[in-house]
Specification:
Elements: H1 2-41, H2 51-89
Helix pairs in contact: 1-2
Protein backbone atom coordinates (compact mmCIF):
# COMPACT_ATOMS: atom_id res chain seq x y z
CA UNK A 1 0.00 0.00 0.00
CA UNK A 2 2.83 2.40 0.89
CA UNK A 3 4.54 1.63 -2.40
CA UNK A 4 1.37 2.51 -4.29
CA UNK A 5 1.09 5.85 -2.47
CA UNK A 6 4.71 6.66 -3.38
CA UNK A 7 4.01 5.89 -7.04
CA UNK A 8 0.93 8.12 -7.00
CA UNK A 9 2.81 11.06 -5.48
CA UNK A 10 5.75 10.50 -7.84
CA UNK A 11 3.42 10.48 -10.85
CA UNK A 12 1.72 13.64 -9.58
CA UNK A 13 5.07 15.43 -9.21
CA UNK A 14 6.17 14.28 -12.65
CA UNK A 15 2.93 15.59 -14.19
CA UNK A 16 3.29 18.90 -12.36
CA UNK A 17 6.86 19.24 -13.64
CA UNK A 18 5.71 18.57 -17.19
CA UNK A 19 2.83 21.01 -16.75
CA UNK A 20 5.20 23.78 -15.60
CA UNK A 21 7.52 23.12 -18.55
CA UNK A 22 4.61 23.08 -21.00
CA UNK A 23 3.25 26.33 -19.60
CA UNK A 24 6.65 28.05 -19.73
CA UNK A 25 7.23 26.73 -23.25
CA UNK A 26 3.85 28.05 -24.39
CA UNK A 27 4.49 31.45 -22.80
CA UNK A 28 7.91 31.65 -24.47
CA UNK A 29 6.40 30.98 -27.90
CA UNK A 30 3.67 33.55 -27.31
CA UNK A 31 6.25 36.14 -26.24
CA UNK A 32 8.34 35.32 -29.31
CA UNK A 33 5.32 35.75 -31.59
CA UNK A 34 4.37 39.07 -29.98
CA UNK A 35 7.97 40.23 -30.27
CA UNK A 36 8.22 39.33 -33.94
CA UNK A 37 4.91 41.00 -34.80
CA UNK A 38 5.74 44.17 -32.86
CA UNK A 39 9.26 44.38 -34.30
CA UNK A 40 8.27 43.77 -37.91
CA UNK A 41 5.31 46.14 -37.70
CA UNK A 42 7.50 48.99 -36.44
CA UNK A 43 10.70 48.64 -38.47
CA UNK A 44 10.01 51.80 -40.44
CA UNK A 45 11.54 54.12 -37.86
CA UNK A 46 14.70 52.71 -36.24
CA UNK A 47 15.29 54.78 -33.13
CA UNK A 48 15.38 54.35 -29.39
CA UNK A 49 12.32 56.60 -29.30
CA UNK A 50 10.27 53.96 -31.16
CA UNK A 51 8.63 52.36 -28.11
CA UNK A 52 6.76 49.54 -29.92
CA UNK A 53 9.99 48.43 -31.60
CA UNK A 54 11.85 48.46 -28.28
CA UNK A 55 9.04 46.47 -26.65
CA UNK A 56 9.16 43.99 -29.52
CA UNK A 57 12.89 43.48 -29.03
CA UNK A 58 12.25 43.09 -25.30
CA UNK A 59 9.67 40.38 -25.98
CA UNK A 60 12.15 38.59 -28.27
CA UNK A 61 14.84 38.60 -25.60
CA UNK A 62 12.36 37.75 -22.85
CA UNK A 63 11.09 34.71 -24.74
CA UNK A 64 14.59 33.22 -24.73
CA UNK A 65 14.87 33.74 -20.97
CA UNK A 66 11.41 32.27 -20.35
CA UNK A 67 12.27 29.16 -22.38
CA UNK A 68 15.65 28.79 -20.66
CA UNK A 69 14.13 29.07 -17.18
CA UNK A 70 11.38 26.58 -18.05
CA UNK A 71 13.93 24.10 -19.37
CA UNK A 72 16.12 24.53 -16.27
CA UNK A 73 13.15 23.96 -13.95
CA UNK A 74 12.24 20.82 -15.88
CA UNK A 75 15.80 19.49 -15.72
CA UNK A 76 16.13 20.17 -11.99
CA UNK A 77 12.78 18.50 -11.29
CA UNK A 78 13.74 15.46 -13.36
CA UNK A 79 17.11 15.15 -11.62
CA UNK A 80 15.40 15.48 -8.24
CA UNK A 81 12.99 12.67 -9.10
CA UNK A 82 15.82 10.48 -10.38
CA UNK A 83 17.78 11.00 -7.14
CA UNK A 84 14.73 10.14 -5.06
CA UNK A 85 14.20 6.98 -7.11
CA UNK A 86 17.85 6.00 -6.65
CA UNK A 87 17.62 6.54 -2.90
CA UNK A 88 14.58 4.27 -2.68
CA UNK A 89 16.37 1.52 -4.59
CA UNK A 90 19.40 1.61 -2.30
Amino acid sequence: MAMKMENVSEDRRRREGKRVFSFMNMMAWIALGVGVVMSVANLGYLSEENLPLMLGIGFLVGSVFIYTIGTAISMVEQRKQDNEADERIE
